[in-house]
Amino acid sequence: MTESSLTPIIKSRGAVFLDRDGTIIKEVNYLSRIQDVKLLPQAADAITRLNRQQIPVILVSNQSGIARGKFTESFVTKTHLYLQKILAREGAYLDDFFFCPHHPEAGNAPYRKICDCRKPAPGLLLEAASRHHLDLSKSYVIGDKLIDVELALRVSGKGILVETGHGKSEKEKIVESKINPNFIAVDLYAAINWVLEELRRGRKIAENSV
Ligand SMILES: [Zn+2]
Do 90 and 48 meet the contact criterion of CB atoms below 8 Å apart? Predict the structure, then answer.
């Protein structure tokens, strides 16, 4: 047996990256109390559909409230554990969580800095890709802000804007910003529906070309 045949083949796959506030849970300005974590309608169902197909679902979130001194990193971690718990009640789970605690102008060091992880900078996605062996060009980012769409486009993935949270007002900035979502969905469920349809179409094309 040659050495190369012993090396495990890691097939790069895509993931679905989800913004948190206004996308999975209700947008409240700088969420700082666990009891304010409320799932948006059908968000858990939508995530379950990805779970069933073994598509990694990864949360990516800007949490500049840390830099601004509104809450701590450990609070954000606690929030994510709680989110995982309420998703589990509905049979859904997130595969991983990444967040940026920084802000370029607010607060003090070490959180006040120009970092490479504040969306739309791709740092969080690159970290996730390396940890989970992901192909970002086969991945999707779903969020209620155009920075989520821009993030996807920066890594050659696809970006979907949801109209929950800040989505409706962000939609009005599309022309001016020239950041064009691949799809605009009323909510996370509709967004994931579009992703699954697209993947199905992709598979059909692959089958037909054999
Ligand atoms: Zn950062």
Answer: yes
User: Is 96 annotated in the active site?
Assistant: no
What does the pLDDT profile of the chain (210 residues) look like in tens digits? 444 555 555 568 999 999 999 999 999 988 989 999 999 999 999 999 999 999 999 999 999 999 999 999 999 999 999 999 999 999 999 999 999 999 999 988 899 999 999 999 999 999 999 999 999 999 999 999 999 999 999 999 999 999 999 999 999 999 999 999 999 999 999 999 999 999 999 877 777 776
Catalytic (active site) residue 21: yes
Query: 188, 23 in Cβ contact below 8 A?
Result: yes
Query: Which among 21, 144, 148, 187 is annotated as catalytic?
Result: 21
117 CA distance to ligand 1 centroid (A)?
4
Ligand 1 centroid – CA 115 distance (Å): 5
Q: Structural domains in the chain?
A: 22-208 (3.40.50.1000)
Name the DSSP class of 36: G
Residue 13: exposed, middle, or buried by beta-carbon count in 10 A (0-12, 13-18, 19+)?
Answer: middle
